[in-house]
Amino acid sequence: MTPRRLIPTLPAATALLAMLLAGPVLALESDAQQPIHISADQLTIDDQAGTAVYTGTVHVEQGSLKLDAQRVELQRGASGGLSTMRATGTSGQRAYIEQQPSPQESLVRGWGDTLIYHAGERRVEMLGNAELHRGGDTFTGAYVEYFLDSRQVNARGGQQSQGGEAGGRVNMTLTPEGGSN
């Protein structure tokens, strides 16, 4: 190859590399605009009610957002798009959700007996045995709410157990910057 051929190719290669590096950033910021892919053992659709119920090892993906549950109920809004997604686990396994907020941030992972994803607000409620891991920080309680875009967390404890144990409290583990996870 002569140097003449390399010179015109270098700007094209640089542009291609820039697009590849920028790709994940664009994909993560546009999760809400990505199609929703769902797999399950069974599906029941009621077009008039605007509902779909998936059962049996349900897996949902929308961009970097992933959800696993035993049962997922989708409710369409007036415009025909997704309004809410309610996911439930089994008695031995909680429903699970994860999202990659940005390439520089750790995966956000959440569990709950029930998860409710509010598509318009991009908000997840974790109900019953709720747990959220964000970076090195962990939040547990009867109820944990997470806003995907603002990354805000709200949590509440449940009622105390009969023995008066800390079942009614919110627990947090906060990791200082530079600390280990």
UniProtKB/TrEMBL annotation:
A single GO molecular function term of this UniProt record: glycolipid transfer activity
Organic solvent tolerance-like N-terminal domain mapped to chain residues: 37-150
Ranges for region Disordered: 79-101, 155-181
One Gene Ontology cellular component annotation held by this UniProt entry: outer membrane-bounded periplasmic space
Taxonomy, superkingdom: Bacteria
Biased composition range(s): Polar residues: 81-101, 172-181
Keywords per UniProt: Periplasm, Signal, Transport
A biological process term (GO) from this entry: lipopolysaccharide transport
Signal peptide annotation: 1-27
Location relative to the cell: Periplasm
Task performed by this protein: Involved in the assembly of lipopolysaccharide (LPS). Required for the translocation of LPS from the inner membrane to the outer membrane. May form a bridge between the inner membrane and the outer membrane, via interactions with LptC and LptD, thereby facilitating LPS transfer across the periplasm.
Summary of subunit composition and partner proteins: Component of the lipopolysaccharide transport and assembly complex.
Stated family: Belongs to the LptA family.
NCBIfam families cross-referenced by the UniProt entry: outer_YhbN_LptA
Name under which the protein is recorded: Lipopolysaccharide export system protein LptA
Organism listed in the record: Halotalea alkalilenta
